[in-house]
Amino acid sequence: MKLLILTQKVDINDDVLGFFHRWIEEFSKHCEKIIVICLQKGEYNLPVNVRVLSLGKEKFSHNSHRFRRLALFYKYIWQERKNYDSVFVHMNQQYVILGGLLWKLLNKKIGLWYAHGSVSLSLRVAEKLADVIFTSTKSGFHVPSKKVNVVGQGIDTNKFKSQISNLKNKDIFTIISVGRISPSKDYETLIKAVEILIKDNIKLEVNIVGGIGLPEDEKYLSNLQTMIREKKLEEAINFAGPVPNKNIVNYLQSADLFVNMGLTGSLDKAILEAMACGLPILTCNEALLDVLGKYKEMLMYPKKDYKKFAEKIEFILKLNYAERKKIGDDLRSIVVENHSVEKLITKILNKY
User: What is the CATH classification number for the domain harbouring 40?
Assistant: First the structure.
């Protein structure tokens, strides 16, 4: 197969999209040739059968350059038409709309990856144009369609793996959360839960890893920092800022518990990365109902219910080392069996 991949960014150092570099690597093992068209490129190190073409946002980021990027998009998909026979679009359904009719005229099969709770008009249009749709869980694609294939996520389980050490003999219980600083991540609930536990004289260290999602989220971060100061939690809660995805594993392996308060209803990749590292997790994300199996009652809490969240944290904290390790080992097994990058790419390519 010769595959055209369209994605937002190719940059191994990116904190949010750096993981996709590994996906491309895995695609390259199964394809004769790969052309990647990205909106923006940074550092990458990909096999010789992969070419990366950028639409130039790293050079021309202003809105006035939109037409320039659009022109490059059509130039690339036309000039490379003999170098690909199938198309895989990652999350950006707009590319399906822009290129769909031409690809159909050229007899190129169109696949769309979409894993998010939101539904837009553009997504509904893209669903009509795509030949096959991939998503991580049933809750990841809310447009009714016979084209949808639930294929899990793509986690590098060779990199994200258990590290024996940190679940025992520690005076301070370490909690980590990874994600954009955005209202949809509901960090307020975490702060309120931590306040309850600190008042009960429980020693906690909380690291929030992630950068600002949108410029308007600067105010959200400022409000969170104010909330932390008012509750006198500065010594317990730390904002670590954005960290390249390739380095997140170090944070996960040094923590005792991963928490996710996301409200979008889509399967957050960061949760699975934590599970792959053998970390117990707590979440309110309904997408995990399809993932956690026998652990869903133990490891889930109602959205925004900070009191129940605090109870769940304390429950995990009071488990002994063997009990927490058993949970972590079982969670890793779930990821290895159902969400490894190797199995994901195989599932995707089998539908072309």
Answer: 3.40.50.2000
